[in-house]
Amino acid sequence: MSALFPFRALRPVPEAAARVASVPYDVVSTEEARAIAAGNPLSFLHITRSEIDLPAGTNPYDAAVYEQAVRNFEALKRDAPMVMDDEPALYFYRLAMGAHVQTGLAGCFSLDEYDLNLIKKHEKTRKDKEDDRTRHMVDLRAQTGVVFLTYHRVATVDEIAERAQETPPLYDLTAPDGVRHTIWRVTGAHRDALVAAVRDVPAMYIADGHHRAASAARARTALATGGHRTADAATFIAVAFPDNQVRILPYNRVVRDLAGETADSLVAAIRTREIVVRAGTATPERPGRVSMYLAGHWHTIELPAPPAGTPRAEALDVEVLQRQVLEPVLKVGDVRTDKRIDFVGGIRGTAELERLVNTGEAAVAFSMFPVSLGDLMAIADAGGIMPPKSTWFEPKLRDGLLVHLI
To answer: Please, which of 16, 239, 290, 350 could form a disulfide with 12 given CB 3.0 to 4.6 Å?
Structure first.
């Protein structure tokens, strides 16, 4: 059973939506955010990455950053302007990227269910990132980032979504990256039917946004401790997409040096581990294969099959590559902390891997086959944790279109 709560969204007037909507705070650096928001005082990045309005070099966790975010949030409410819906509602949020289209149900979900793991996780979170977003939520009294959930599809939800999409939307805009974002508001009988339908969903799964969800739970506790317990603070804003519409792209790897090896000796060292390495292409054809770009050429690595009974998370290609190649041959230890490895979202394509190696920014790149949503759900169901940087969900939601005040 899953609880779904309509809410009164704070949102921009339609005329300002395209200028307000911004990429999620955690997919851009401070420098990238500053460049994107330049000349656009309505960009929501002024709220989620408010250090862009402070002197260069300001620590993004400095108290001045959160104070600036509060000032910027108040200014945006006035200048966009932002409006509050007059009654609690739910929303359908459609993403269209080329031929790929997915429509999710936006509303608020229970932090009690999050605590009980009825909203299932598959990643560990970092305390520094939790600290940051928790303070951001508490100071603004708002959840400004939207969690991306998925669930086993429900026919009733699909049917109401189809009807909603036949009506005029609240917003219909195309972002600079070419992704089209369309949102419909749902009230009345259809809203109530959606709440009832979601009760039949046994579990929700966090696809993207583990730090936002964890921080919402901590913000709830912080506000209650400070005497500000509210019903809204007991929920978090998310968009839940049916599993048959979600797309996962690979999360690729680059390593900055060869740990003392040459290109030829690296290939030889991998082969000594009884791993097949042969000439190949930039994109692996199936699970169990990884494409490696080294010294201007692509190779295919045939990963050894994990022994029978290996936990599903440990059988993922990213984890097998880590155990069989990255750690023993390239000396990459903890991928969460090792500065010699970096990760490239699949949306950037294999051309970006080639560029990084060809320019000397990396010595070798690994192009992965994407993890399946079935693997993600099975690992979460078993209470497992996926290896770091296993999945890249695309397209991504935009911040600023639906804000949840707490």
So the answer is: 16
Express each pLDDT in 136-154 by its tens digit: 999 999 999 999 999 999 9
Q: pLDDT tens, 143-190?
A: 999 999 999 999 999 999 999 999 999 999 999 999 999 999 999 999
The pTM of the full predicted model, rounded to 2 decimals, is 0.93
Rg for the chain, CA atoms, rounded: 22
What residue numbers bound the domain in which 36 lies? 4-247+394-405
Torsion of CA 277, 282, 285, 288, to 10 degrees: 40
User: Is 98 found in the same domain as 194?
Assistant: yes
Judge whether 39 lies within some domain: yes
With CA atoms as reference, report the closest residue to 242 among 104, 380, 374, 99: 104
Residue count (the chain): 406
268 and 229 in a single domain? The answer is no
Q: Clarify whether residues 192 and 282 are in a common domain.
A: no
Q: What is the rounded CA–CA span in Å between residue 159 and residue 172?
A: 21
Average pLDDT over the chain reads 97
Q: At 339, is the secondary structure helix, strand, or coil?
A: coil
DSSP letters of 170-235? SEEEE-TTS-EEEEEEE-HHHHHHHHHHHTT---EEEEE-HHHHHHHHHHHHHHHHTT---TGGGE
Q: Phi and psi dihedrals of 270, rounded to 5?
A: -65, -40
Split into its structural domains, the chain has a count of: 2
**How far, in Å, CA of 100 to CA of 102, rounded?**
7
Q: Rounded to whole angstroms, how far apart are CA atoms 398 and 94?
A: 11
Spatial distance between the Cα atoms of 377 and 373, rounded to a whole number of angstroms: 6
